[in-house]
Amino acid sequence: MNLTDNRLYPYPECDPPLVKDEANAPVQTRALAEAIDTDLDTVSVQIREAFQLPTHILRITSATTIASGSEVPFDTVEYDNRGWATLPTITVGTAGIYLVTGFAHSVTLTNVQSLALQFLINGNPFYLQGTSPPATSFGRMTASGTLHRSAGDTIGLRVLYSGTDPSDFDNCWLSVTRMVEF
């Protein structure tokens, strides 16, 4: 049998359009199919390991009173495919570039007049993004950014707002994904 140059798949020997040994054509075709199937399994594992990015999502499970300037007390790990969640933060296990996204939503009629989200790195403020919802209403905010972190660094989220303090938040989450350079 001949082998392909790039993936070394066996293929039936032939002088197109004729197969040299027609008696072995089914055996040769089967060998080709099995080699491709095995190779696809190997490539699938490589893709999953290289490109299934380490992703971690924390959230709160019910309305929670949070004072302005306080860290969000995440109590649930929504998703953690590398085991880095360390409630109420995420401790990154690999150095790299990370996409961080946070969301906070205050309970209706809590009088949150302006709202800002601040990412924390090892407990220190890193990035702040804010908005101004209507007075006597609820605040809702999504913030995101990228950062380069070392293994062992922790990432958390803080809410800052004006209005009734403390206020109840019924939907908060933090997502951290390590990006892979191509």
Q: Describe it for me?
A:
This protein is mainly beta. The protein contains one helix and 16 strands. It folds into two domains: 2-51; 55-179, Jelly Rolls (Sandwich). It has one helix spanning 25-51; strands spanning 2-3, 10-11, 14-15, 18-19, 55-59, 64-66, 70-71, 76-80, 85-86, 89-91, 96-106, 112-121, 124-131, 140-149, 154-163, 167-179. A hairpin with a 2-residue loop joins β12 (112-121) and β13 (124-131). The radius of gyration is 26 Å and the shape is elongated. The chain starts with a strand and ends with a strand.
What's the CATH class of the largest domain, please? Mainly Beta
Beta-strand content estimate? over 45%
- Give the helices and strands as they follow along the chain: EEEEHEEEEEEEEEEEE
Helicity level: 10-25%
Number of domains: 2
* CATH fold-level name of the largest domain: Jelly Rolls
Give Rg in angstroms. 26 Å
- The 3D shape can be described as elongated
CATH architecture of the largest domain: Sandwich
Largest β sheet strand count, sense and barrel closure: 6 strands, antiparallel
User: Which structural class is indicated by helix and strand composition?
Assistant: mainly beta
Q: How many helices does DSSP assign?
A: 1
Distance between the termini: 36 Å
Number of strands: 16
Short structural summary:
This protein has one helix at residues 25-51, and strands spanning 2-3, 10-11, 14-15, 18-19, 55-59, 64-66, 70-71, 76-80, 85-86, 89-91, 96-106, 112-121, 124-131, 140-149, 154-163, 167-179. The chain is mainly beta. Strands 5, 6, 8, 11, 14 and 16 form a six-stranded antiparallel β-sheet that branches. Strands 7, 9, 10, 12, 13 and 15 form a six-stranded antiparallel β-sheet that branches.
